[in-house]
Amino acid sequence: MTSPLCTDVLIVGGGIAGLWLNARLRSQGFSTLLVENASLGGGQSLKSQGIIHGGAKYALHGALSGASEAIADMPRRWREALAGTGELDLAGVRVLSDAHYLWSPGTLAGNLSSFLASKAVRSRVDQVKGADLPPALQHPKFKGKVYRLNELVLDVPSLIERLSLLAGDSLLAAQQIEALRGTASEPAEQSEQAEQSAQADPREPTELTKPAELLGLRLDGREVRAQRIVLSAGAGNAQLLADLGIRQPSMQRRPLHMVLVKGPGLKPLYAHCLGGGPKPRVTITSHPAADGQWVWYLGGDLAEAAGVARDERAQIRAAQHELAQLLPWIDLSTAHWATLRVDRAEPAQSSLGRPDNAFLAEQGRLLVGWPTKLALAPDFADRVLAALARDGIRPGPPSTRPELPRPPLGQPIWTSLLP
In 208-269, which ranges are continuous DSSP H helix? Predict the structure, then answer.
């Protein structure tokens, strides 16, 4: 029988949101335990493009939206952390690009969107030309316009590795997660009785006079009690809530059909290619493979509604057609292609809209949230810390902890999809 554990905050989910929150809490003296049932970052985090958005992509019609304003301060906070002077010390995390770009291919619609975006976010956008262009666009045939955004692109695997180091001894690998219910003042031996009572016929009387509350979780049979429990498991939150018998908050999934291409002719490119609509025609980020070649990861409108409806072959053909039109000087004749279906997990919104901010809901000791975007992980942590401060939750006395089984680091998605 494993010994029970006590912690100030128990976090479920080892993606960027959970790992960032875990590090923030530990930096403020809280005892934490983060449980992951697979690999760190292996859910949505390693499927993201690593862009630390500052909001420009949400202003393509010339007006600042709620999403644009909510995320505007994120690049500054991430830059400070990467410099080792911010709320976390992320020194050593690999920065793939110090800027992301808005790229108009030269069409009237694309140029108009680019112009409006630059006016709406005047302080965040600078036009670049010539040698300042991204390497993949430095070609005589390129006739478009490019605007530099004050937005980073990070190597997500190195970010996860750094956050796992900041976690110290707080990580736990566990497959089975169950509710631990009882009353906060009852002796430990009554918690099992409370658990059985919660599962019994509700019409039958019980010996407990107080309703059972969530005190913690059983993780592979190990009892863990906590002052607060945070669910930050992305798409896994839905099943966790169902297992706990909780219906709200509800979750939505926004499906994407991303494309990966790897080849010797690729050069680094980090850009939103603009069309005439409210979304980028295609968003390209570049990631280093182990053999020294670059992998382009394609999102944007290409990966959304029409892309989701296509099968893998049709989606690759659509991506090949887009790149041939936009970048005809890039030789893709020997490139390798793959697609990846991703479900972005978010709190349910009307018409599957994208939430503007990180989201957090509370039910007693339980906090449930989604950052909604990698860049908003600091905002998610802010909301949890504010809830703890409001409720008077403070770090408890330090205690020793046995060595725990540790979840592995997730691997970049292209290692399994491309040669």
Answer: 236-243
Q: What is the pLDDT of residues 390-409, one digit of tens each?
A: 999 999 998 888 899 999 99
DSSP code of residue 64: -
Residue located via tokens 């991303």: 258
Residue 417, number of CB atoms within 10 A of its CB: 15
Q: Which CATH architecture has domain 94-153+253-345?
A: 2-Layer Sandwich (3.30)
pTM: 0.89
Question: Does the pLDDT value for residue 375 go beyond 50?
Answer: yes
Q: Choose among 91, 67, 81: nearest CA to 24.
A: 81
Identify the burial level of 228 via C-beta atoms within 10 angstroms of its C-beta, where 0-12 means exposed, 13-18 middle and 19 or more buried: buried
Characterize the bridge pairing of strands 271-273 and 251-263: unpaired
- Looking at residue 100, its amino acid is H
In the block, residue with structure tokens 């976010």: 121
Tell me: domain 5-44+161-250+353-412, CATH 3.40.50.300, correct? no
Contact yes or no for 257/315 (Cβ under 8 A): yes
Q: What are the DSSP calls for 289-344, one per residue?
A: -TTS-EEEEEEGGGGSHHHHHS-HHHHHHHHHHHHHHH-TTS--TT-EEEEEEEEE
pLDDT at 268 over 90: yes
Best CA proximity match to 322, nearest among 348, 298, 289, 344: 298
Amino acid at 293: Q
**Three-state DSSP state, 63:** coil
Short-list 69, 16, 27, CA closest to 370: 16
